[in-house]
Amino acid sequence: MSRYVNIATRIWHDEKFRELPDDAKMLFLCLLTSPHGNMCGIFYLPPLYACHDLRWTEKRYQAAIEQLKTRKIVAVDGDIILIKNFLRYNPIKGPKQAVGAANRLKEVPATRLIECFLDILERYTTEDDYQKFINTYDIPYQYPIDTPPIPESVTDTESVTESDPETDTERKTPKQSKVKYADFVKMTPEEHQKLIDQFGPIPTTKMIEILDNYKGASGKTYKSDYRAILTWVVNRWREDNGHHQGNCSQDSGQGTELIYKYD
What is the CATH number for 42? Predict the structure, then answer.
């Protein structure tokens, strides 16, 4: 739940907002201030929850949400709502907020809107805060195959004994170099094999191709292409292959203005 939200008073003089039907205006303000919302602007809100808050019928709610979707103010995937430019006026600032926002996003059920959200987040967040968010959101326990084993406890004697330099050198595992699997996609052979083990060779090739095309066209870079695939590319691949209903293109948020403004 987000306790505070920035809403400019001039919203009532905004032409796009004034053109909305009264129910759509009311619903938009409800979504912005909903107790079910969070600091990310993407949250779980079944229609019946909103109907209860507004004391509306479901038919009335559906008519209003369609108005907001048509004007690309919000994106909807089942029971998940994404307020398109929420982060423009409620940006995530600093490492603590980045960690908090990532933890809130983990509470949101799986949705194709995650990819859209991450694009919006990157646009309205500093590079350091964005990377902090991604690192927190992609912590190993989300993907059991990546979780490192818990080290065995050492004895009291071992803990106070000086290490043998030669033994320490032997124990160190050399860091794997990244291999180029496409023009703009690199990862370690181990990461590549994990994708194959989890999804199969053909889907892995397709997902690498999706990421390669995206990075080549946008100029975007990732600290870990492997993590990018697990974070959003897999959802795009599933969508392209009919594993998800609907599409995200109409709600990509690219260049779209929310109707609450400061300037």
Answer: 1.10.10.10
